Automatic annotation (TrEMBL):
It comes from the Eukaryota. Pfam families: Acetyltransf_3 (PF13302). Transmembrane segments: none annotated. It comes from Brassica napus (Rape). Residues 37-196 form the N-acetyltransferase domain. SUPFAM superfamilies: Acyl-CoA N-acyltransferases (Nat) (SSF55729). This is (rape) hypothetical protein. InterPro entries: Acyl_CoA_acyltransferase, GNAT_dom. One of its GO terms (molecular function) is acyltransferase activity, transferring groups other than amino-acyl groups.
Amino acid sequence: MILGHKDMLIIYSIILLQSQSSTNQSRENMETDLSRVTLRPFSLTDAHDFLRWASDVRVTGNLRWQTFTSEEEALVFIRDVCLPHPWRRSICIDDRSIGFISVFPETGDDRFKAHIGYGLSHEYWGKGIATRAVSIAVPQVFNDLPHVLRLQAFVQTQNKASQRVLEKVGFQREGLLRKYSYVKGEIHDVFVYSLLSSDLLPLP
């Protein structure tokens, strides 16, 4: 059967609509299927995916990290900082790195405390992924670091999204520290959030 020009246009339009529908369905699934979110230790093979979000100033703007500019920089950072870190995990979708969660245990008489921080690729903001990742991380941290009784976070007052993440996971806002955090040349007010190992944790 030989198709005319008009028939070909109709078929192309149908294929295009099906493709758009499939893409929209895929995006919809991404917004709702949080079972694809996992945490794991970083690997040197993450350098390419790491650079995709660590080179974005929207992601690094609230971090003490500098914005990365090359895959070589990412590789060195993973090797020298991420791998030997006491508790740093890659946030993954289908095992592909899209962000990080770090926990910094204190030492000496303060070893019962630890600080948590995280960052996520901009394309995944607002989809519940950060909340899911932190909710997975919290019980793991208390299990892996049994001497830690208090997990705390310092969040810049203007970072509403991060505050919502912590509150959804069960962290309590304890107060305001004025002119407390120095990030990229500016000093910020921060809210203090905490979660105790004895607190009831929401199901991840």
